[in-house]
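Appendix B. Extra example for self-study. Work through it before the problem class; the solution is given directly after the inputs so you can check yourself.
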Amino acid sequence: MVEHVETNSVATGSGTNASTTTTNGSPTSPAASTKTFSTHPHLFLVHSSPNFQSKMTATTHFTPNTVLLSFADTMTPVPKPSYTTVQISTTEHIELNSNLVYLNHSCDPSCVIDTVKKEVRVVREVREGEELTFFYPSSEWDMDQAFDCWCGSEKCLKRIQGAKYLTVDQLQHHYLNNHIIELITASLHGLPR
Ligand SMILES: [Zn+2]
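Solution. Structure tokens for the complete assembly:
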């Protein structure tokens, strides 16, 4: 995996970044309304604020391929997807039941969610204080709630609603779980999905 230099690059000319109604990358609320907590304070901190503007940040320095947290022992199956669930196969969805639910999406993520090993791994160098994120379409085929992404990456896909709505070109440089690859393949061959 190529190591990315964190640049927080300036917008690349497509849009103004003026929105105040986003779920990621938007201007933060005054600190007074933000609560912080963590089940694993030596690894991460959750910053929870109103209007779904929560995020998880690293409290230590991570090197690539470090396991952040397993969800094998906390997850529970659910019958259908919601904004808090993770898809773990072509048909199964789970609740994480842990602080991992606060991981935001990024189009240039610092983590991956591995739905076979049931763990989240940090995939590049992450400094203390940096946000921990993963690429939602790497596990989600057709999301319950789509949203506009303002992650600020020059690779930002803008509209996030699941891998089903992205092209192979948009997906090919991302870590993808096997069930997403299966669903893409079925879709390319015109099979039911
Ligand atoms: Zn984005």
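Self-check: The domain at 31-188 is CATH 2.170.270.10 (Beta-clip-like). If your reasoning did not lead you there, revisit section 3.
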